[in-house]
Amino acid sequence: MRKTIIITGLILLALAFQNSVEAQISTNRNALTFKFLATDYASPLTEEFNTENFTYGGEIKYSRFLNPSFNLDIPFRIGDVTYPLSDSMSVGSTFGSGDVNIVYKLNNGYLIPEEGFFAPYIFAGIGANYLAELDESNLDVQVPLGLGFNFKLAKNIRLQIQSEYRFAAIRDYNNFRHTAGLSFLFGGGDEIDKVTSAAETDTDGDGVNDFDDDCPEVAGTAQFKGCPDSDGDDVPDESDDCPNERGTLRGCPDVDKDGVADKDDKCPEKRGVASNNGCPEVPKDSDRDGILDKDDKCPNERGLTRFDGCPDNDGDGTPDVEDDCPTVIGSKDLNGCPDTDKDGITDAEDKCPTTPGTKELEGCPENPTDNVIIVDSPPVISTPTTAPVPTTTIITQPTTTVITSEPVITTTTTSPVLDADVRDLLDFAMRDVKFETGSSSLKVASYGILEKIAALLLERPEYGLSIEGHTDSLGDDNRNLKLSEERAKACFDYLVKKGVEEGRMSYLGLGETQPIGDNKRTKGREKNRRVEFKIYLR
Fold first, then answer.
1. pLDDT-based confidence at 467, cuts 50/70/90?
2. Which of 88, 206, 266, 437 is geometrically suited to a Cys-Cys bond with 277, CB 3.0 to 4.6 A?
């Protein structure tokens, strides 16, 4: 009978309240809820769920809107309760309770849309529970923890289903409570008035109401939630670095499409790179050896093309980075170090550097008495002379015997027997010394090889040098002859600047008279445009 009365009363209250909320606006947030209640004190003790343990009652709950994520709920409940004392005995009573709960709504617009049909929530709180006629401690404090679901039936009416577990603080009165009923939304007070006002107001007249307008005092577009895009480039002004110019880089134009906005681009009409302020990247040649840094293995040292920009200061054909003796002409096979007696042992490690020997004896011969050192007589200088040439001397060890030949008088130029490394240097110089087109001005890339020749001459004072200029057959013969001489002289002058005495050198222009390639072919003409360097003994 009591259950019937409770249900009838809840239905009448719900119908009466429903009429009062029909006129409310769609932004109603507060609510009154009328629900049927089922209480279960037995299951927490028996650990078995059974609907026969349910006792029934009713609930009236007031829900206060706080913000889109949280509500404050105050439920009041009354009903019957059966508390088991043993497996075969239980005691009945009536109860009344009131709680204060904080509710977290999952339909807050972040997880689930606010106005959707399905609106789950979770809650926790604290409450007082009164049990009549059960024992002397009628009043208990309980902590509810639960979840619920709202289902939208009409604009302001929801079906609410909820379950909770309640922890009793004083006695072992933990219990389950399950409720179901109707929730009626109504006006939300000051907060709702503000929402309603904003929903009905458009301060800037841009067609976006203030409630949805991120820039309510500045006319904008619906695309950007009421914020302006003055230049119409689909970048709102607040994010646009150039709000009055259409553009693609944070709203700024980039005419040359190089990824640098025109306002920051020093070459706005030429594609460039950001590292050069939007201008084309300038190839760098830090050491000015004619090889760009990107291809130069030694970008800070002037070097040679054949060594990828690395220097060979002693001109022995071994780049300094691989040369164990970078200031002394040596052999490639010995990492650039000299081996005077050609016995395969570097002079630095050879105890007999001028006498061929064996590795076992650290460069000395096995039979010193049989060793002979031959010193070649140097040839005569290129200028005719009647001075006698030094005689050839043969020295034997340990006993010294000197054989002197008659003086020789000659007017021919004799070249010395040069090391292969020196020959490589001169041959490379013939191909690598370059001039500006039609001019005798040396290119910067030629300085390195000329400096190596200068270093060789300064290290070997007995050497003299003849410089010969040559051209291809294109153009006037006399002009070619003059140009070849001017180019030979340019090399001569450069070596003088590097400290080589003028008296040790000569230069000559031979024009197109001594080709080494076919002048009818491009590659042949390239070979013919050259400067030759010839070493002789002074």
1. very high
2. 266
Distance from the Cα of residue 256 to its chain's centroid? 24
Which H helix or E strand runs over 459?
A: helix 447-459
Find where tokens 């970008």 sit.
299
Half-sphere exposure of 99 (CA within 13 A, CB side): 26
Cβ contact 214:228 at 8 Å: no
Q: What is the DSSP annotation of 2-32? A: HHHHHHHHHHHHHHHHHHHHTTS-TT--EEE
Residue with tokens 């339909």: 107
Beta strands per DSSP E along 8-110: 30-40, 55-65, 70-84, 90-105
User: From the centroid of its chain, how far is CA 359?
Assistant: 54
Strand partners, 46: none
Of the pLDDT bands very low, low, confident and very high (cuts 50, 70, 90), residue 44 is confident
> CA angle, 513 as apex, 512 and 518 as ends, to 5°?
65
Cα separation, 53 vs 244, whole angstroms: 74
Write down the pLDDT at residue 177: 94
For residue range 379-395, list pLDDT tens digits in order. 333 333 333 333 333 33
> Collapsing DSSP states into helix, strand and coil, what is residue 475?
coil
**What is the DSSP code string of 135-165?**
-S--EEEEEEEEEEEEEEEETTEEEEEEEEE
Mean pLDDT, residues 493-515: 93
Distance, in Å, from the CA atom of 341 to the CA atom of 355, rounded to the nearest integer, reads 5
Strands (E), 376-462: 393-396
- Give residue 191's region: left, alpha or beta (phi > 0; psi -120 to 50): alpha
What is the rounded distance in angstroms from the CA atom of residue 79 to the CA atom of residue 183?
20
Helical H runs in 181-305? Answer: 189-200
| Token output for 143 | 């902590």
Rg, Å, the chain Cα set: 53
Average per-residue pLDDT for the chain: 81
- The string of pLDDT tens digits covering residues 331-381 is 888 898 998 888 889 988 888 988 898 888 888 987 654 433 333 333 333
- Give residue 195's Cα distance to chain centre: 47
Give strand pairing partners of 465: 505, 535
- 392 within 8 A of 379, measured Cβ to Cβ: no
